[in-house]
Amino acid sequence: MHLQIFKENFQRGFSPKYFFIAVVYFSLSFIGILHHEIWLDEAHHFLLARDSGSIAELIYNARYDGHPLLWNFMLYALTRFTHDPFYMQLFHILISLSAVIVFLRNAPFTDFFKVPFVFGYFMFYEYNIISRNYSLGVLFLFTSCTLLCSAKKKYTAILVFLLLLSYTHLFSLFCAVSIFIVTVISYRFDSKKKISRLKFRIACTVFVFAVLFILWSIIPPPDHFLHQYDTDPYLSFKRIGKAFSLFFKGMYHFPNFFKYHFWNTNLLVDISKNLSVIPSVICFLIPFILFHNKPLSLLVFYLSSITIALFIFWSPIIAGVRYFGYITLLLITSLWLSKYSPEKNTLFPEKIYLKLKRFNSRFKVSIMYSILFIQFFSSLIVYSLDLSKPFSEGKEVAEYLVEKNYAQDNIVVSHQSSAPPISAYLNKKLFYAEANEFGSFCKWNTHPFVIDKEELISRLKKSNFQKSILVLNDSLFQDFGDSSLPVYSDAQLKIFYLAKFDKGIMKSENYRLYEVRKEVEKN
């Protein structure tokens, strides 16, 4: 079998085989969400929408998130009708399905190329089973590519979808800006353009000002808790590695399945961080080799990816696997655009250019399929594990509290970042010990963001709760295995062990439950 990337004589259309692929994709996705328990990031945005009384309140509540708000606005509309997080998950896989349909119908790749990509780790699991704002970005990215690669380009529509893309995620905004530049270049050399120069300039001006507004609006206040932990020097190996490893982790994502808590890991990085530097350098150069004669594709990939890497390097955020997927998306996008952009040697002497061309003709297909099949196998394994194990134990805790008639009690949770899944599934606000108030979504300016055992006990004593259920995501108290014996006792407070939930893939969302009773003061 002779592997190819691009389909010969490609014509856009949605054939019966694509309909079948879409049905399989949706069916497996539906089974996936039935077995996937939402975790902090999913629940947090759901609760922001659920517990905001107006759009203005939602914008205010989300000011610490650093995200454009399109996904939150959609969830706000959804939560006017239901407070069940399952419907967020169902809505999300419908968005992912739409992105898959756009890709299958319009991308100029062979079917053998499309299938492992569609069912690969990022498209099928990270941006599908996990309900976040990324799938919206994928949908608008693929739609923008479709319009930009059309014979008769509708420039206003392209800019509208690029603007929608910008309003899904900061990294999507970086991608939109690079494609916007390509759109401007394309307009300049388009002999068949049907929009006047004045209208195009006005549309471009609107896009630029809208992007600037989005950037201004997502800057979080300076008291965000992450700034307390931003202590690594800028030239430290940890900070440089966090940013530069983006390229390897994004292309060859293979989690360390030898760990129970495998999510957000990479097998090679866990084996040796120093060793992983070599493939990181190689992966950084792969697009340079693939698109050496396609300057527009080079621009899209490197302008976007380097901007993302610089942001990860500069900012205090913890780089999760969801960010790495942008490298795969940019690689596919650049490959897609390369099919329709002219070949041009603008960077190299003729001898080097010819050597790159020969290397490219020999290894381009192998490189791309190695990336696709690594991600495809990762997707199969992660999906299977998510079916068999709880991703988060938040849902199990909520069901336990309902079953044991504890759901109506005052429920105290520490740490607060482990609480949103429980709040979402119980459909009620909980008492967050760190914030010292009832809440649901996380308030990222809580200080201190984590309290110790002594402070927790102090706040329990000062509360007005004669009886409460305490939910912890660590082992502050020793378990005696006998619920009749208190794990903590003094003149004012007794704490009794109830249950433990420790099977979750998310280590931070395994829980211990306790019953807290205040001692009645004797006269």
Keywords:
alpha/beta; 21 helices; seven-stranded mixed β-sheet; 523 residues; 7% strand; single chain
Question: How would you characterize this protein structure?
Answer:
- 55% of the residues lie in helices and 7% in strands.
- The chain is built from 21 helices and 7 strands.
- It has helices at residues 16-35, 40-50, 55-61, 70-78, 85-106, 111-118, 121-129, 134-148, 155-166, 170-188, 197-217, 237-244, 246-251, 267-271, 277-290, 295-314, 321-338, 350-388, 394-403, 420-426, 453-462; strands at residues 410-414, 430-432, 437-439, 467-472, 486-489, 493-501, 511-518.
- Strands 3-2-1-4-7-6-5 form a 7-stranded mixed sheet.
- The longest helix has 39 residues, at 350-388.
- It is elongated, with a radius of gyration of 25 Å.
- The protein starts with 15 loop residues before the first helix and ends in a 5-residue tail after the last strand.
- The mean pLDDT is 92.
Topology, element by element:
Blueprint: H1 16-35, H2 40-50, H3 55-61, H4 70-78, H5 85-106, H6 111-118, H7 121-129, H8 134-148, H9 155-166, H10 170-188, H11 197-217, H12 237-244, H13 246-251, H14 267-271, H15 277-290, H16 295-314, H17 321-338, H18 350-388, H19 394-403, E1 410-414, H20 420-426, E2 430-432, E3 437-439, H21 453-462, E4 467-472, E5 486-489, E6 493-501, E7 511-518
Parallel strand pairs: 1-2, 1-4
Antiparallel strand pairs: 2-3, 4-7, 5-6, 6-7
Helix pairs in contact: 1-5, 1-7, 2-4, 2-20, 5-7, 5-8, 7-18, 8-9, 8-10, 8-17, 9-10, 9-11, 10-16, 12-16, 16-17, 19-20
Q: Report the strand count.
A: 7
- Fraction of residues in helix: 55-70%
Backbone CA Rg: 25 Å
Order of helices and strands: HHHHHHHHHHHHHHHHHHHEHEEHEEEE
Q: What structural class do you assign from the helix and strand content?
A: alpha/beta
**Sheet with most strands:** 7 strands, mixed
Proportion of residues in extended strands: 5-15%
Q: Report how far apart the termini are.
A: 89 Å
Shape: elongated
Number of helices: 21
* Mean pLDDT over the residues: 92
The stretches of 5 or more residues where confidence is low (pLDDT under 50) are none
**Strand order in the sheet with the most strands:** 3-2-1-4-7-6-5
